[in-house]
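Sample entry (153 residues):
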Amino acid sequence: MQSLDDLYRHYLRDALRQSVAGALAVVAVIALRLRSARRTAAIVLPLALAVVLTMGVLAACGVALGILHLIGLLLVVAIGSNYGLFLDHWRDVGRFDPDTLASLLLANLTAVLAFGLLAFSHIPALSALGRVVAPGVALALAASAAFVLPRRR
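Predicted structure, serialized as tokens:
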């Protein structure tokens, strides 16, 4: 049994290392695209906040975090980065497009509802993903909207 525990710990450590590398790659791509440390921070900080809050809520609820939760957090980063990029673009342009805003809100609502339903699944893998992604994407949108910087004049 000790051998199995060691194998799982090694696998989890490797998955965590690769997830951090993936998250850093996302940050690098965003930074290369925006070419501004301030704009990059305005997109990355809400993602970090959403991930930390989601993990904190799950931990406070007594959920033992595993590999599927980590995959769910990567989905939160992937989806949440899109929210941040949309909001950054609107900040840069100086006006919000009502149709695009409605589409963004509908996409968020759809993701929250779909993954929220998965959270109630009797299949542990689906439930784990749902319990992470549903609140995570909602928090990512809210945090991204809070971090949008006002346009400089």
